[in-house]
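Hello forum,

I keep getting stuck at the same step: I have a sequence, I want structure tokens, and every attempt I make locally crashes halfway through. Rather than fight my setup again tonight, could one of you with a working pipeline run this one for me? It's a single chain of 144 residues.
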Amino acid sequence: MKSVALPVLIGLIILLSAIFIFVIVVWIYRSVLKTFAKGGAWGKLAEKYPVETEPTEISLPKQTIRVGAVRYRRCVTAGLLADGMYIAITLPAHAPLFIPWDEFHLMGKTRIYARQALQWSIGKPEIARISFPMPLSEKLKPFL
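Reply #2:
Ran it on my machine without issues. Output:
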């Protein structure tokens, strides 16, 4: 009887330890994301340009952009509306943004990974810089 109980107890301890470690890793990951989201360029933009209602119009899912020094790869949804641009990221602690078109100021060409992109200064005085790859930048032109 003792020989069966000991392996079961050891297995249970290993399982609970693995679950505990997983929970701690997820908690650390979310905490780091929250810290960077609030303290970086995204946090400054979220303070200045909060979203009041999510648009149902033109939606461009799975976009890649750069905000400040951070690249967000295929996790951005963009909406091009008559009065501004809606930007949402599928990561925790990143509030969606709505930036009016008159806040965009073209800075020039850049790259995101190996792709050509256009970099925009947001706000006067500048709050942050956002870069969009050329296919998305081309879709912005009629609005600016």
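The helical segments are 2-39, 41-48, 134-140. If your local run keeps crashing, start a new thread with the error log.
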